[in-house]
Fold this sequence. Notes:
Helices cover 19% and strands 28% of the residues. The protein is of the alpha+beta class. It holds the Pfam family PNPOx_N.
Amino acid sequence: MGKSYERIDGRLRAFIEAQHIFFTATAPLDSDGTVNLSPKGLNGSFAVLDEHTVAYLDFAGSNAETIAHLRENGRITLMWCAFDGPPNIVRVHGRGEPVFRDDERWSGLLAHFPDSDPTRHGLRAIIVVTAEKIRDTCGYTVPFMTYDEDRSLHGSRFARETDESLDAYFHKKEHIATSIDGLPGLPLPLPPLAGTA
Length: 197
């Protein structure tokens, strides 16, 4: 039923890139720590960088658990499900790294997302994942669901923020600079958004 892959290419890459939503899972090293599972969407916010590397845009929110876990131990799993067409589930298990706005790699990475406007969603990091294990499974129990469109709420909420007001928003949130379990999260103050010209 399931199959392992050496690289992200061909039919596998086409499947991943066609999905409108995927999920990320991370956890701290502490066995009593909080496991985090997050849905990720917004068309244009995910990219396959090469046969072993993917990345996605990490937008403003009220937590930074994924960032905190990756800063501590780097472990991450990404998962895509087929909600239409033939049943399929793909998982990429690997090592992730949050690349922040003041990193010299920022502009080069941002160029992989030409269909996403980083100024509309409070872009705070680019998560880069290097695949260590790539697998698919049947997905026979995943229901059929249709995609209508991306929600506009996130963009309309954060498009009005400047770098300064976004930084102030993050400072007010309890679990942005520090995770639920007390790990370092998003480094603050938030650097200005670069590479968007």
